[in-house]
Write a structure and sequence with these properties.
With about 180 residues, this protein is α+β, with helices and mostly antiparallel strands. It has four helices and seven strands, in the order E-H-H-E-E-E-E-H-E-E-H.
Length: about 180
């Protein structure tokens, strides 16, 4: 069966917006963990110091937790500046999504590279998604559900340009190429 679509074509990715999204996601994640562990460290140091010196705990504990929060957040920002900013750019540059005859292919990853090629007959559902941070950055995602079981049965691709149109296009191509 022939169709009116090209045999192979790339799917466009909004690389700048996706890079901004991954950078913001990395920064927020690092800040969350830095703040959490910093306040916990401040709490432990305040309670240990309080037990030895018997200072006023209503002042000491919040003060130490606040100092721990600042130190943890500062460390998180430094780690982001050293690693997160650069890795987000590498990650977005290595993302490739395309249609190759009766296959859907995507390749991603920086250190561990994943290159998957799915036959259209193994894809059972196409949907679009976006979370609050994705909407803030102006990107959408495409979610594919496959017949495979386990953790590899759902594939989420973020930053797909015109995700709704691509979802509909892939559905039509899938129906035409499924039995090829």
């Amino acid at each position: 069966m022939t169709d009116s679509y090209p045999e192979s074509f790339p799917i466009e990715i909004e690389r700048e917006k996706l890079c901004r999204y991954w950078r913001l996601e990395a920064l927020l994640t690092l800040l969350f963990f830095g703040a959490f562990f910093g306040t916990q460290f401040g709490l432990v140091s305040a309670t240990n110091r309080h037990a030895m010196m018997e200072l006023d705990s209503w002042i000491t504990i919040p003060l130490r937790m606040g100092i721990g929060l600042l130190i943890g957040s500062t460390i998180a920002v430094v780690i982001y500046g050293i690693v997160g900013h650069y890795l987000s750019r590498l990650r977005v540059n290595r993302l490739e999504v395309s249609v190759e005859k009766q296959y859907f292919r995507f390749s991603e990853g920086v250190f561990v590279r994943s290159d998957r090629k799915l036959h259209f007959r193994s894809i059972v559902d196409y949907s679009c998604f976006s979370g609050p941070l994705m909407r803030f950055c102006g990107i959408e995602g495409l979610m594919l559900t496959t017949t495979a079981g386990g953790r590899y049965s759902t594939i989420r691709l973020k930053g797909i340009k015109n995700a709704l149109k691509i979802r509909d296009l892939l559905s039509v191509i899938d129906a035409q190429r499924e039995n090829s």
